[in-house]
Amino acid sequence: MFVEHEASIGEMTSQERRDAVQSDRxxxxxxxxxxxxxxxxxxxxxxxxxxxxxxWTVGKMISINLGTTRTVGLVYAIGKSDRAWSNExxxxxxxxxxxxxxxxxxxxPGAKPVFDRGITTYPHIGAIAHxxxxxxxxxxxxxxxxxxxxxxxxxxxxxxxANIAIDDTLARHFAIVGTTGVGKSTAVSLLLRKSIVARPxxxxxILDPHNEFAASLPEYCVRVDSKTLDLPFWMFKxxxxxxxxxxxxxxxxxxxxxxxxxxxxAKNLYRNPNSAAFVRRGGGDGLTADTPVPYRIVxxxxxxxxxxxxxxSKNDRPTLKSLKTRIESAATDPxxxxxxNSRLIxxxxxxxxxxxxxxxxxxxxxxxFEMAGMPSEVVNSVCSVLARLAFDLALWSEGKLQxxxxxxxxxxxMPADPxxxxxxxxxxxxxxxxxxRKYGCYLGVVTQRPGELDPTILSQCSTFFxxxxxxxxxxxxxxSAIADSSASTLAFLSSxxxxxxxxxxxxxxxxxxxxxxxxxxELIPGASRREEGITKSGDVDLVAIVDRLRNVPKQTQQAxxxxxxxxxxxxxxxxxxxxxPAPRIQPDEDFDMRYGLKPATFGLRPQND
Length: 609
Prior knowledge:
Distance between the termini: 106 Å
Radius of gyration: 33 Å
Helix content: 25-40%
Strand order of the largest sheet: 9-8-18-17-16-10-15-14-11-13-12
Shape: elongated
Strand content: 15-25%
Number of strands: 18
């Protein structure tokens, strides 16, 4: 971009633009054709002496002087009509520009010029085209006083900051798209850092499938993975719990119906242990299989056993037996420790939600949920639970809790094909996209394949950061989202450099090509892991790899909840609920050790010497 910084200092732009005797060095050409959205300018590629000036290049902005206003245009094509170059005399060229808007000088002397999107007065034939001035370029991207943050510089002029309206970007959802290796994760990390500083009340939950964001936000982030996650099974809705039991396969309707009937009974037994295992239909408790109320797996297994023993359930016994096997298998699976690991079933919903959604945040408002290595059915269910809880928390807090749910590799959770993915996760994220901004729950979408993302979710994102995209289908998706008056800007999608992006939507004043700020090397997502891989040397520890693959601790597994003997007379909160372990009696010389136990254990009388 050619900008006259020296000429713009201390100069009245309105007077200079209207001076009939102005310098020819700022005149680039004249308008020879114009329609509703585009115009053609006739100019010369070289000067009178035959030297190529290079004043015209694709991607630059120019202004057209119309007397009272200046029309701003973007150059998207240059060419010679005869496709021939002459070394004798000047070479006429045709420059195609896209009309973006117009700049007007303010009424008060010395005030900043004002930019308006849209054209009220179109250029006439013969209108003079100029290089755009720095003041006018700043006016084009001015946010008119909206709360803004600086995320980089303009590609047209690196002296001018690239600003976005942070409140509008968050509240109306945003999307960052780009192919692998263009700097999406770095842009996300930069955007999150700026957002935390600008919005200290914001809580952020990152669904991180590659375990890379925690290291890039060390001072703000709390790491949660399969080992540290504590999400009890009773917080799952029936659909989410079934996804875990059936391991992502097709569900059996009869088994789901049995769960729908028996889970409320188990919840009622937890709340009223001395009552009969009967749930009154339409009663005041209102317990359903989806109500987040604690219950014991042992009670659920017991109800299945009792139903199998009923005479009228003879035909349902194979179904109930299969369901019991599924529940026991899931409860003993080491991959599901975060759901079934607690031996004491307590109502820990406050602690669980507070830890995940950082209430209070204690200076660390970001939770990074690391999913690498977790089974897909676990990822699907947990993402569904977290998205559903995020919306409900924002809804019932009446806007006091501001949450941002950032979905890295979003096409995994919200694929365009409705037959793929997990339906509850899609519904939970779709609910945030459609209604979340009303209650303070925001959605951030990051993907390298926008063509594989659900169009409904993508259409709800009002601000886009489009980085380099090579796939034609992905480019077509972005073209359908951008305004017609800026469609030519997307011609650069396949050739943009590292950290470059085209931003458009509610978060910017007009379509803007920018370059993100450069982060330090240690804050780039995944950089530390790559450095460790380069520096580490030696043989591969196959034993450690197999241990991780099996995911089973070497020590003896503790008994699972369904195998415990539960005393229904004691409940969570009772003084003697957490009984101390019984003291171990040391054997003395009078003990008969032939059986390894005290003889009294068998009901035998001690033997005399």
